[in-house]
Amino acid sequence: MSPGSVVVALFVLFVVAAEDTLDEETEVFSLSCGTGIAKFSIPKNVKIEKFRIQDIRRILTQLETAKSFLKAKEGELYNLYQDVISTPSNFEYSWLPEDSLQWFREKVQCLGKNQKVKMILPLLYTSLQNYSATFNAMKETNEHQPHEELITNINLWLRAVLCEVEFAIININMMIPKWKPLNHDALAGWFKIPHETLLKEWGVHERYSKFLQDWSYILRDVMRKKNSKRCTQSGKKDPSLSFVNPTSASSDSDDFRYETEDVSRKEA
After folding, report:
1. Total count of domains within the chain
2. pLDDT at 240 over 90
3. Which residue from 121, 159, 175, 256 has the fewest beta carbons nearer than 10 Å?
4. Could you list the residue range(s) of the whole structural domain that residue 44 is in?
């Protein structure tokens, strides 16, 4: 067994063992590292440490593994969704991040390395949480065994990425972002509408594939020794390369959010 296989096996055993200790109301997908290392509290006014390149490299390695798994399952995805792949749709997925790469290029790419990391890690963390919750709803509302098994495995590799992000955030003494939960029942009900389930699921898979590609680029950029040539010597982006309508890569006006106060945690 290769070292990588050992790590994955240990991760799976850790998560499964932790899930067995959770009460019924606990949202399992929100605990990326089993019971979660986010329980460790960071005192206020603690200095944000410089990020370690190996932390970003571990995230990238795990993300590339998730991307490779998805690519290996392209044939299976096609067989499961071939009836809807070419069907036009206008479903909204406002709770899922979109155009992450454009957001990065417009807002983050020309910052210093530590500033980049402080901006991308919380966003990546909450974005992965939303995808994990979505896959969880898809799995629980799907009555077809092949679909459920594939979605379960996709979500498992996603959570491995999420766990690495969580460790990286804590390693630099940042607060773990307080995730704003999705309304699971409403989301599951949305996927369960007759004649729409497969088309909606396919839309999620398409967005997730692009999400992984975008973040692969973003993480590789952060690991570069020098900023992109798009940036001027002053650290600002060349105006001639500016994007139009940059995205915030998040949305607070979602149909599937719980009606609660904003629980986003500010940086200590």
Report:
1. 1
2. no
3. 175
4. 3-241
